[in-house]
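Friendly challenge for the regulars: who can give me the structure tokens for this chain first? No prize, just bragging rights.
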Amino acid sequence: MPAHPPTGTAARPGITEIVIRPNQSLSPRGNRLFFLLMAVVSLAIAGAFAHLGFWMILPFAGLELLLLALALGLCCRRAGWREVVRIAEHTVEVRTFRHPLQHCWRSARAWTRVRLEPGATEALPSRLLLQQHGRGPAIGACLTNPERARLALTLQRALPRSPTCASA
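First reply, four minutes later:
Bragging rights claimed.
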């Protein structure tokens, strides 16, 4: 599934927000118009065949429209999810919005590490993890492997390792 590249915006100076969301080719209004167009065409063809005596086409046209409505509804629902990575001065927060669930993970910025795990084979997707002490969420599941690698670099630049204190 193609995805919108992550976008970074500074909500306030010193705060970085990266929004990750899947590509949404049609708006909800566009999906309704597409369904309406398909329903008119399908029912017109089914009605013409029913008029010729092939009435059994009508239930199949209805079933086809029902499946199309379910598929478009699922696409609209999935297009509504997003992940927001917010990097502040001392904290890192990942908010995941998946209809109807919302999940939030917080970590101290100094302890947060970015880890990009390659897929088991070239065809399998990599995993991008934000971790504190080996635990944390996988993010960017809707991204391609190159997009996930660019996001990992962006996050690594935004989360520099804290400098070590020099002893006197």
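The helical segments are 28-51, 57-79, 145-158. The two ends are 54 Å apart (CA to CA). Your move, everyone else.
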